[in-house]
Specification:
This protein is α/β, with parallel strands linked by helices. Helices cover 38% and strands 18% of the residues. The protein contains eleven helices and twelve strands. It has an eight-stranded parallel β-barrel with strand order 1-4-5-8-9-10-11-12, surrounded by nine helices. β4, α3 and β5 form a beta-alpha-beta unit. α4 crosses α5. It starts with 14 loop residues before the first helix and ends with a helix. The chain binds ligand PBG. The site of ligand PBG has 11 residues, from α6.
């Protein structure tokens, strides 16, 4: 037999050695739990996302308690808004008596140390289902107005921050919104409120189930004039530099699993913390394959989350957060 001095398998020979040489480990403090809520009194199962629930306010408080108990540092709120409150100017987005401000106040009162992340975008409030204000041109083309939208987003962010949100998270992909929101918050004496920017948010097929959960699919057109083309990575660096320069505190890549290269690029090109969002379609790919008996559910969840962290994410939004935190 030829001598073979270099044998990587020596570092894999037993579980204890593997534990010693492991480069990446998950902890509950890496995880952020997204939670859906609605104004009704019942907790509703979400048909497009089996295993997820649209929580009533009391149900939401119970989930927050669970996250805090499990050591999950933050939750991200996504509201399903009653159809009657949606309009083309998305006014409900900055109603101080609206669902999100009410939820923030209740949560902050009961769980002051749990970080609250609130989404800044118009899609749940907009009768057009777009993240920005829509102008339907006579030639049948749906235009998403950039600068007009930013003014509404700034009002929405102030409304959430005044109610007590710790982190506002613009997920809309309008140009210049981070700078405008930072300036508006600072002017309103909310300089302590952080901004988590959805910096590289791709126009992805993996958001489908989420839009079902909020009933927020665009009525006309698609989101490709504001969300990024999945084919591009250098363009993500441009967005990174803009958001960083405009005052973002945390940069996010979304989706996560199909964009690990972008997560790595971000962690190598910024000193800011990097978040990644394992989105609804990623969740459902694992859930449905596991349900069919085609893969080991828990192993697949751990592998997917470990890979996202290995790529460079400091924090991960995942619908599996509380389940996984319980097992860590
Ligand atoms: C919209 C928003 C979306 C998601 C989070 N915020 C959907 C979209 O851009 O159409 C998707 C999250 C998921 O799929 O889990 N502001």
């Amino acid at each position: 037999m030829k001598p073979l001095p270099l044998r990587p398998r020596r570092n894999r020979k037993c579980a204890s050695i593997r534990a010693l040489v492991r480069e990446t480990s998950l902890s509950p403090s890496d995880l952020i739990q997204p939670l859906f809520l609605h104004a009704g009194n019942e907790d509703q199962p979400i048909a497009s996302m089996p295993g997820c629930t649209r929580w009533s306010l009391p149900g939401l408080l119970q989930q927050a308690e669970k996250c805090q108990r499990l050591g999950i540092p933050a939750i991200a709120l996504f509201p399903a808004i009653d159809e009657t409150l949606k309009s083309s100017d998305a006014q409900e987005a900055f109603n101080p008596e609206g669902l999100i401000p009410r939820a923030i106040k209740l949560l902050k009162n009961d769980f002051p140390d749990l970080v609250l992340i609130t989404d800044v975008a118009l899609d749940p409030y907009n009768s057009d289902g777009h993240d920005g204000l829509v102008k339907n041109n006579s030639n049948g083309i749906t235009e998403i107005l950039n600068d007009e939208t930013i003014e509404v987003l700034a009002r929405q962010a102030i409304c959430q921050a005044q109610a007590g949100s710790d982190v506002v998270a613009p997920s809309d992909m309008m140009d210049g919104r981070i700078g405008a929101i930072r300036a508006a918050l600072d002017q309103a004496e909310l300089s302590h409120t952080s901004i988590l920017a959805y910096t590289a948010k791709y126009a992805s097929a993996f958001y489908g189930p989420f839009r079902g959960a909020l009933d927020s699919s665009p009525k006309n057109g698609d989101k490709k004039t504001y969300q990024m083309d999945p084919a591009n990575s250098r363009e993500a660096l441009r967005e990174l530099h803009l958001d960083q320069h405009e005052g973002a505190d945390i940069l996010m890549v979304k989706p996560a699993g199909a964009y690990l290269d972008i997560i790595q690029t971000f962690s190598q090109n910024s000193y800011l913390p990097i978040a990644a969002y394992q989105v609804s379609g990623e969740y459902l790919m694992i859930e449905s394959a596991a349900k069919a008996g085609w893969l080991n559910r828990e192993a697949a969840i751990f592998e997917s989350l470990t890979s996202i962290k290995r790529a460079g994410a400091n924090m991960i939004l995942t619908y599996f957060a509380s389940e996984i935190a319980e097992k860590l």
